[in-house]
Amino acid sequence: MKMKMEDSVAAVEKIIGYTFRNKNLLEEALTHSSYPESVSYERLEFIGDAVLGHAISNHLFLVYTNVDQRQLSLLRSANVSTEKLARAAVSNCLHRYIRLKTHSLAEHIREFAAAVEQEKGRAIVLYGGAVKASKVLADVVESVAAAVYVDLDFDLKKLWVVIRGLLEPIVTLNDLEQKPQPVTMLYEICHKNGKKVDIRHSRNGDKSTASVYVDGELFAVASSDQKDIAKLDAAKSAVQKLERVLPITTTTPDNCKGLDGTFEIEEPKQKLYALCGRKKWPTPVYSIERDEGTPQNKIFVTSVQVATPDGTLKMLGEEKSRVKDSQNSAASLMIRALLQSQLV
């Protein structure tokens, strides 16, 4: 039995923690254009796309006071992407209250929601999971945000107070450092090493195949029902292979040897990320080299790699009890190595 629209509106109000003065706005925000008996969310989506971008931009500007425009743009894009917003819709159960009459769209939403549910408890997914994100779900989140914005007489500050919870967890600079976009990373690695990369697509029945060619040679292949996911998977595979075959400096340069693990600087991960951005180098890549001990007495050692015009440098941090601290240790030593090598 289908839920009445009045009940859907009440349920969504409870989810977002806001009671509408004009409930027709929320009804509109939950209605797809395939549903003929009511006005669809298309007009609200138009304003929601802009207002969500504006709201998250304000938030990022205030939180990250020492990062440049490029990094802020990457953070904003990650937080308002179709992937992020569609997952927000599922995480907050908004998909249960959408009105639409297109079977294929409804089936895709169910498949995506089921995949997201299976991924619960895992690390944040930025660039595509097992099922391609539903644009309808992302549109609904934008439309709900717009409905709140209009109902609040276009007050952006009040909107952020209401809507922020719907967007949690906010993608952070640390998330981007840990999970660089695979396709972007592939092109950056090849560019830095003077190699030409080409991604070609083909389709066989229901399967889309992405093939990565490096300097004209087939390097990685991946297939999926979705073209975008095939491309992401092929890029991930290619990056992993490139990291194995390209020359990597596993220790510091000669004039940087002997650095002790007591060297620390304030906010080293953020500063290393900003430094690489200014130099137009690829994003630093962190890897856990050691994970030992009991849950009450853990030991982590993390490495960081930075690709420079002179090659890729790799630095090991000292032992720490938290992953974040071990990453900061590696970043501190990498910054010092770069300074002493006169690369920065």
TrEMBL record:
InterPro entries the UniProt entry points to: dsRBD_dom, RNase_III_dom, RNase_III_sf
Record GO biological process: RNA processing
Listed Pfam families: dsrm, Ribonuclease_3
Cofactor(s) the protein needs: Mn(2+); Mg(2+)
Keyword Hydrolase attached: yes
Superkingdom classification of source: Eukaryota
Domain DRBM residue range list: 168-244, 267-340
Domain annotation RNase III: ranges: 9-153
GO terms of molecular function: metal ion binding; ribonuclease III activity; RNA binding
CDD domains found in the cross-reference section: RIBOc
Keywords: Endonuclease, Hydrolase, Magnesium, Metal-binding, Nuclease, RNA-binding
Name by which UniProt lists this protein: Uncharacterized protein
